[in-house]
What we know:
By secondary structure, the protein is α+β, with helices and mostly antiparallel strands. It is built from seven helices and nine strands.
Amino acid sequence: MTTKPARLSHVVLHSTDPKRLIDWYCDALGGEIVFDSPFFVFMTYDEEHHRVASLLSSTDSSSRTPGTGLSHVAFGFNTIGDLLDHYDRIKAQGNKPVTSIHHGPTISLYYKDVDGNNVEFFVDTMPPAEATAFLKGPSYAQNPIGYEIDPEDLVAQRAGGASDTELLAFDTEREVDIMATLMRQQELLA
């Protein structure tokens, strides 16, 4: 049986003015901002922790992320097992993520489709209300990127008997060079 995503979850857009763009979506969709920084802004209009996000991009045409437009679309899975089964299935077809991140509220695997568009496959690590509170809280403000992970490590841990709770756990004490991680992610997803 093929494991399929449970839902189309969110879109992320590049913008030279992320706050202004998200304010527009908040007005248009009746939403609220759940995270606001100079580099990216998240909003939601329902129980989901974010539905539209905007990333700061450059007006410099030599930049790896110039201008405006789609960054990625995201598809959510119900369980970490479903996400890892999906990972194994498409890996067997030659598709590997260009990067994988534990963001705190999600474990996310990012791919390029055949036209070079970015696609995120993820699983929530906590219930929606808890994820929204996390995005609004001090842990996320301190590290709004998360940290890079290797999905093969998750597959091995799962095969070794790790529980879903263990696989989903986010290390809030982990040392992360936020700017280096952000720059690496932007380069990989450019």
